Amino acid sequence: MSTLTDPPKPAFRLSQLIYDTRYRSITIQLVALVLMVLGIGWLVNNTVQNLAALGKDFNFGFLDNPAGYDINQKLIDYDSQMSHGRAALVGILNTLLVAILGCVTATVIGVIAGVLRLSKNWVVSRLMAVYVEGFRNVPLLLWIILIFSIMSESMPQPRDFRGDEPAASMILSDSVAVTNRGIWIPRLGFTNSLSGNEAVASVEGVPAVASGGADWALIGVTLLISIVAIGFVRSRSTRIQEATGVRPTTWYLQLGILVIPFAIVGLFLGMTVVTPFLKGFNFTEGTHLRNSLIALWLALSLYTGSFIAEIVRAGILAVSKGQSEAAFALGMRPNRTMNLVILPQAMRVIVPPLISQYLNLTKNSSLAIAVGYMDVRATLGGITINQTGRELEGMLLLGGFYLVLSLLISSVMNYFNNRTQLRER
Amino acid sequence: MSDTTTHSVSYVRESMLAETAPPVTETGAIKWMRENLFSSILNTVLTILSIFVVYWIVSKIGPWFWNSIWDAGSLTECREILAAKGMSSHDGACFGVIKDRWQQLIFGFYPSEYYWRPVLALLVFFVGISPVLFDRMPRKMLILTMLTPFVMYLLLWGGAIWLPLMVAAGFGVGYLAMKALSPINGLLGSLGAIILPLIFWLYLAGPIAGQLTSFAPIGFEFVPSKSFGGFTLSLVIGIVAIILSLPLGILLALGRQSDLPIIKYSAVTFIEVIRGVPLIVWLFTASLLLNYFLPPGTNFDLMLRVIIMVTLFSAAYIAEVVRGGLAALPTGQYEGADSLGMSYWQSMRLIVLPQALKISIPGIVNTFIGLFKDTTLVVFIGLFDPIGLAGAVRASTDWNGIYWELFIFIGVMFFIFCFSMGRYSLYLEHKLQREHR
Question: What is the ipTM of this complex?
Answer without folding.
Answer: 0.85
